[in-house]
Amino acid sequence: MASPAPIPAPAGGAAALRARLTIPVLAYCGILMAVMQTVVVPLLPDLPRLTGASPGAVSWMVTASLLSGAVLTPVLGRAGDMYGKRRVLLVSFALMAAGSVICALTSDIGVLIAARTLQGAASSVVPLSISILRDELPPERRGSAVALMSSTVGIGAALGLPAAAVVVQYANWHVMFWVTAALGATGVALIRWAVPESPVREPGRFDVTGALGLAAGLISLLLAVSQGGQWGWGSARILGLFLTAVIVLCLWWWHQLRAEQPLVDLRLVSRPRVGLSHVAALLTGFAFYANSLVTAQLVQAPEASGYGLGLSIVQTGLCLLPGGITMLLFSPLSARISETRGPRITLALGAAVIACGYALRIVDSRDLWMIMVGATVVATGTTLAYSALPSLILRAVPPGQTASANGFNVLMRTIGQATSSAAVAAVLVHHTGLVGGAPVPTLHGYLLAFGVAGAVALAACAVALTIPGDAGPDGRGGTRRARGRTRSVGDGALEGA
Question: What is the pLDDT of residues 261-318, one digit of tens each?
């Protein structure tokens, strides 16, 4: 199905204002989604005391949203392609706001975990928004808007940590959830007012069997990856979960290949342009996540360790804040590089910059200013890479499958992040020393974690360079050249697609 030409907004009035605010509203929603994922982090040390639950139970405040987000992102992406992206975007944001209200009203750990599961639905905001931007914007505005939307994940994460830490330090912890509930309700109202419903649909019957199979397989896989450190990698529970994941996902793959209207079009995924983009997303997610994860622990380590700075959670958030600002500033540059050189070059460049950032971390992780410089360099590379990934997908899939394809790409990033968390935890657990009678990771452990993340970033760079020449927005081949260059006859069609 071909994408209809965007309808220009009237010259003035409310309709013109709504058209101008579509991109800022969607970016606001993406930032708020990332903030929602981050705000619970400063609470984790105190939640056992505040809720009367064990530390293991409290950790599910993070795990629950991770699992539900991984499952619901491709499912809601497919639903958006079929039933309307704005409609599904409203549902996912409303679920996030409802989850915040529930968290604000209770201290029961079981109810809190259920509410965080609802909030995981907001993970579909970014792929749905990117698909809306493809359908509604002219080609000359699409690249920069998609790059900004992709960067909101890092921007929100960088803003959420210090903001939440301030609220937790100076107010009742329930206030934090009332704030996110109010912001979420504002987002729902803004979406209804400023975001148009895309006319591009992929009609058919929703693959319920495929959705349930994907949910069962992903929950088994991610649960094993995220809980392996606590339950023991060789325990019967973890091995059973991995075995279940392999069996269920193999059966799911078999079903998807035979379904008339599959949840995920695996024949499309098998194309090198799409499949390699998903592999690059997984590797980039792994490399990116280690930056904030390790940096936060390193700067909060006690000074008695010989390398730690003993910073508070608020100070830690401020250390990561320059990275978020950098992501906002560099998203237009990413769009420009993708326009002139192609998104696969942008992706490869971003992965290489991430690797350089980790090299700086290995050279010096004792001085605060060098730690901030290294973390910001990694954030810059993440901006380039994350902004390029949706552009690769948009150029390689039909318009009717953009939300589901981008949802699957976000899923691969999520799996990469979960794997990164498990790998970093495993490295640090095996490299600890006693400081004041308490086990604290050694500097060698942190440097080893940086080295692993840097190596994965180089692997992502290599994968990006093997992606065939960028496809056009309708899925056909052809790299978009810089303006003013001589183009083939086919390129002209791709420019206007």
Answer: 888 888 888 888 899 999 999 999 999 888 877 888 888 888 888 888 888 877 887 8
Angle between helices 272-300 and 368-396 (to 10 degrees): 160
Residues 6+ positions from 191 with CB-CB distance below 8 Å: 25, 29, 86, 89, 90, 93
Q: Which amino acid is at 490?
A: G
Beta bridge partners of 434: 439
pTM beyond 0.85: the answer is no
Most confident of 56-60, 115-119, 425-429: 115-119
Rounded CA separation 133/162 (Å): 30
DSSP one-letter code for 432? E
What Å distances lie between residue 390 and 42, 73, 383, 385, CA to CA? 31, 14, 12, 10
Distance CA 253, CA 299 (A): 43
CA–CA gap between residue 92 and residue 309 (Å, rounded): 40
Residue showing tokens 């209809």: 4
User: What does the alpha-carbon distance between residue 83 and residue 404 come to, in Å, rounded to a whole number?
Assistant: 12
Burial tier of 262 (Cβ tally within 10 Å: 0-12, 13-18, 19+): buried
Compute the C-alpha angle 2/277/212, nearest 5°. 80
CB 211 within 8 A of CB 263: yes
Phi-psi map region of 488: left, alpha, beta (phi>0 left; psi -120 to 50 alpha): beta
Tokens of 153: 């994940």
**Distance from C-alpha of 15 to C-alpha of 431, rounded to nearest angstrom:** 59
Q: How many CB atoms lie within 10 A of CB 237?
A: 13
**C-beta of residue 303 within 8 angstroms of C-beta of residue 310:** yes
Tokens 């992709």 found at: 150
DSSP element (H, E) containing 57 = helix 55-58
Distance of CA 318 to the CA centre of its chain: 21
> What does 201-233 look like in DSSP terms, one character per residue?
---S---HHHHHHHHHHHHHHHHHHHHHHHH-T
In this structure, which amino acid lies at residue 151? Answer: S
Q: For tokens 């629950």, name the residue.
A: 64
- C-alpha closest to that of 283 among 382, 427, 407: 382
C-alpha to C-alpha distance for 311 and 316, rounded to whole angstroms: 6
3-state secondary structure of 434: strand
For residue range 179-196, what is the model confidence (pLDDT) as tens digits? 999 999 999 999 999 998
Separation between Cα atoms, residue 122 and residue 407, nearest integer Å: 12
Convert the pLDDT of each residue in 393-445 to its tens digit.
888 888 778 888 888 888 898 888 888 888 888 888 888 887 777 778 889 99
Structure tokens, 447: 């440097």
